[in-house]
Amino acid sequence: QVQLVESGGGSVQAGGSLRLSCAASGLTFSRYNKAWFRQSPGMEREFVGAIAWSGGTTYYADSVKGRFTISNDNAKNMMYLQMNSLKPEDTAVYSCAADSTWLRESLEYDYWGQGTQVTVSS
Q1: Mean pLDDT, to the nearest integer, of 88-95?
Q2: Cα–Cα distance, 73 to 76 (Å, whole number)
């Protein structure tokens, strides 16, 4: 059974930083392309960024480019999202996703986590 579990969410003031983690089980994470999405109440799910299985290619939404960084640790079956210079508009539930296809911002990922809440106060 495949599971993706996010952690590291919390509350932070604007300008602060958080590091989210995504732990995978039931699949060889290193063989999958991975992504982070976020969703605020009443809003559609929004793409944050993606990383290729090798870790050599990343792709970010314009809204987070230069502030957020995605990284892999395939040996540990983990993915991370380092979020710096956080803004109140970054408040959302953040979810990780994985797929064998390089989907970038598409929502068609096969596997999804349940999400972790990030709240940024002004």
Answers
A1: 98
A2: 6
Q: What is the pLDDT of residue 3?
A: 97
Contact assessment for residue 92 and residue 38, using Cβ atoms and an 8 Å cutoff: yes
Q: How far apart are CA 79 and CA 97, in angstroms?
A: 10
pLDDT, one tens digit per residue, over 17-46 is 999 999 999 998 889 999 999 999 899 999
Average pLDDT over residues 79-108: 96
What three-state secondary structure class fits 29?
helix
- What is the three-state SS of 77-114? CEEEEEECCCCHHHCEEEEEEEECCCCCCCCCCCEECC
Place of tokens 């109440």: 41
Is residue 109 scored above 90 in pLDDT?
yes
Contacts within 8 Å (CB) and 24+ apart, 54-62? 57/102, 59/104, 59/105, 61/105
Beta strand pairing status for 58-60 and 68-73? unpaired
Q: Which residue has the tokens 């930083």?
A: 17
Tokens of 30: 């290193």
